[in-house]
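Replying to the earlier thread about multi-chain prediction with a worked example.

Input:
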Amino acid sequence: MAAAWHDGRVDDRALVRAVLDGDRDAFRPVVEREATAVYRACLRILGEPADAEDVAQESMVIGYRSLATFRGDGPLGAWLVRIATRQAYRRVGQRRNAVDLAAIPEPAGSGPSSAEPLGTLIASERATELRAGVAALPEPYRETVALRFFGELALDEIAAATGRPLNTVKTHLRRGLERLRVAVGRGQP
Amino acid sequence: MTRRPFTSGELGRDDAELDQLGAELEALAAGASTPSRGFHNRVLAAVDGTEPPRRWWLAAWLAPGSGAAWQGATLALVLVLGVTAALMAGGLLDGVRRTPGAGTSPAPSESAEQSITPSPSPSPSPTITPTPSSAASVSPTATPVVSAEGSPSESEDGAETPRPGESDNSGPGGGGGDSSGSGSGDD
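Result:
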């Protein structure tokens, strides 16, 4: 029983129960399985790999310490990505006081690849604009858009992670995208 | 690439502009690279350095292991206890209002009438019928008529009526106060 999670087929609830029962190593497969997704969500929000790693690590630790509150309604990974999204936007808010978000450089390799320097620059500016536009959305639209596109979660996973009905999530995503479309200059609301 | 390409159809309505915006957001997401080499080990080390998570009673109650029946029973018990406590509090308030109620419960306006009427009742009523002062406040037409027959009875009425009238009046009036009190207590 102690190492039941080692077979890789044990569900999230069993892993969480094992950790809460004192099996610290039971969290290892969670880290190996979910840390990259958590990091990517942070990177897409923050734009800087070093910041993203810091926030992702912080989020995994917060998730570990808060495991007792995980209800198991959805995947553990989606729950961790939600924590990471919140932490990343908290970091964005802290940075915003000191640095203009638009001044943050685009990470290497992000955005559509282009051989033309001008195309790369435009793509980079557009990526920055989009990232800032999402960051400026009010809640819960920001969270929903971020979980869908930066956390790569399906709508039902977002519903489970946030505890909101699926139709509410759809409404939030639609309204969030419509607001974002106006904010980044793509048509009327 | 994202695991699930976005289409506005998943929101229930096709919208070409939302599709385009979604594609841009996915392109932004697609560029995210992998973390640095020792990232997982750093995360594991950070996790090892923190206190292990603990179950607390509410979390244990909400935990996946605890069945829905148990959660429902606990919730029902909490609700019953809450309602009982609210009812008891309301009953206590009623008791407090009614026991010393004869002397204290009347409303300020009624206690003012009482303080006025006792003085006329012992003394000769015809002279003291300056009940107009109280009559002015209570019923201007009744006082002149009754004062001719016997102001004592009127003054006694004036002294007594507040009590039954008080209880009668305070029925709805006090009831209103009670209901508002118990209402606020329930809240």
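The longest helix of chain B spans residues 68-98.

Feel free to reuse this layout for your own posts.
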